[in-house]
TrEMBL record:
Subcellular location: Cell membrane
Tagged with keyword Protein biosynthesis: no
Protein known as: Probable quinol oxidase subunit 3
Domain Heme-copper oxidase subunit III family profile: 29-207
Similarity comment: Belongs to the cytochrome c oxidase subunit 3 family.
Record's signal peptide: none
Amino acid sequence: MAHVEEKMTVERWPSHPETASLEGKNKFVGFWIFLGGETALFASLFATYLALKDQVPSQDHLTAQQLFHLPLAFVMTMLLLTSSLTSVYAMYHMKNYDFKKMITWIIVTILLGLCFLGLEIYEFVEYVHQGHTFRSSAFGSAFYFLVGTHGLHVLIGLGWAVLLVIRNMGRGLSVYNAAKFNTFSLYWHFIDVVWVFIFTVVYLLGVLG
């Protein structure tokens, strides 16, 4: 009987559980409104960085070409892009009513995000040791403000994912928490897209001049 009941539950699971409830629809709309504000925030940070990236106090000060290490930035990019893929897998299993696999892929996403954040902290420490700090130049201030703001968003996303997993581990899937997991996934994709722009504008163009 238990097997039949589970099968009926799966059959009744909506094809789009994230928007199957009114709350889910509101979360979806609210996220895109929030995303508009976040886009404006990062657009202003990118504009500030581009305006100040050549503002260094003297020729002896480290420039982007001397400072940045593309291999490290590339590894960080691959980690974050892979985490975006694993979050897609998580949402795929959510839509197929497979709670365990969804949680597994979210945990993998968290681990990849932690690796990214660890490398970013390592990168910042190395730059500080080389004299590139928030107060060393306008270039330094713009760099840390842009990349640091993104890092803060990654940290918030990781905390969000951990809380979702802990809070819902014993609850299973419902249209109520499906909307929450989907909103997190959309947020995580946004973070990844922002990082692609950071990698291109800050690191790639910085090294290539």
